[in-house]
Amino acid sequence: MNIAPNRVEIHNEWDIVRARQSGRERAKELGFGHVDQARIATAISELARNIYLYAKHGEIIISVIDGEKRGISIIAEDNGPGIRDLRKAMEDGYTTSGGLGAGLPGVKRLMDDFDIVSEEGQGTKITAKKYLR
Amino acid sequence: MRIPILKLYNYLLTTIQVELDDQTAIQFQDDLLNKIHETGAIGVVIDLTSVEIIDSYIAKILGDVVNMSELLGAKVVLTGIRPAVALTLIDLGIRLKGVPTALDLEQGIEKLRQELGE
Asked: pLDDT, tens digit, for every residue of B48-70?
C-alpha cells in the first residue's frame, strides 16, 4: 500500500470534493467499513469547507497511522484568520458563516481523536484521527 | 452537471446519482424549483440511494429545497438515505427536522399519496 501522505490543496469548492474522495479511497484501502468511510469523508468535507469559507485556501493532508493502532490521520491546515474563540467554535450550533454550524463539534464526533491549534491572524491547524477497530 | 428531473403525472421524480459538489447542488435547487413552477407538480420525490456523503452544506441545501418547494405548493419526500449517511448526519448533529423521508422510491410515492390525500 502506498503510505505517502495525500496532500490536497483547497482553493475552491471542487477541491472539497477531491479531498473527501481521496480520504474515502484511502480509508477503504485501509480496511475501514462503509460507515467509517462515510464518517471520514464527511469529516474531511467539513474541514475542507471551513478552509474554503474562512481562510480561502489551505491544505488537507491525509496519511496512514501505522503504529500500534492503525488508522487514518487528517490534517487541515491554513494560514487564514484563525479562530478567535476556540471554546465557542466547539459549541454545537455556533457559526459565523450562516451555515448549519455543524462544523467542528460534528467533526470531533465523527472521528476518534481531535486536536486544534489556532492563533488569531496566523491560521489554524486541526488534526483528526480515526482508528481501525 | 445537471441532475435530470422527471415528471410523472402530478409528481416530479429525481434520483441523485452523482457526487454532489456545491455547484451541482445549487443548480439542482434552481432546476427543481423552476420545474415545480412550470409543471404545477404537487409532489416531489428526491431519491438519494446513490449518495454516499451528505455533509452539513448539502444537508442544508436539501432542507432548504424541501421548504422552498412547500412554498410553491409541492410536498417533498427524501428517499433512499443510506444507513451510513444517516449515522453520519446524526454524528454531525444534523436532524433534518420536518423533512419527510421514506425507505425507497415506492414508499416515497406512497407517502406522497397519503399526505396529499390522493
From this structure: 999 999 998 899 999 999 999 99
Q: Do A45 and B55 touch (CB under 8 A)?
A: yes
- Beta-carbon separation of B88 and A34 below 8 A: no
* Assigned CATH topology for domain B6-116: Transcription Regulator spoIIAA (3.30.750)
CA A71 to chain centre: 14
Q: Minimal CA–CA distance to A88: which of A74, A105, A76, A71?
A: A105
Q: For residue B11, which of B48, B39, B49, B47 has the smallest C-alpha distance?
A: B39
Q: Does the residue A4 lie in any domain?
A: no
Residue A1 resides in a domain: no
- Determine how many CB atoms are found less than 10 A away from the CB of residue A72: 26
pTM of the model: 0.91
CA distance A33 to chain B (A): 10
Residue A30 lies in a domain: yes
What's the rounded Cα separation, in Å, for the pair A113 and A32? 16
The domain containing residue A93 runs over which residues? 9-131
- The tens digit of pLDDT for each residue in A50-81 reads 999 889 999 999 999 998 999 999 999 999 88
Total count of domains within chain A: 1
- On whether any CB of chain B is under 8 Å from the CB of A106, the answer is yes
Residue A37, chain B, CB below 8 Å: the answer is yes
Instruction: Assign A89 a pLDDT band (cuts: 50, 70, 90).
Output: confident
Cβ–Cβ gap B87/A46 under 8 Å: no
Q: Where are the domains of chain B?
A: 6-116
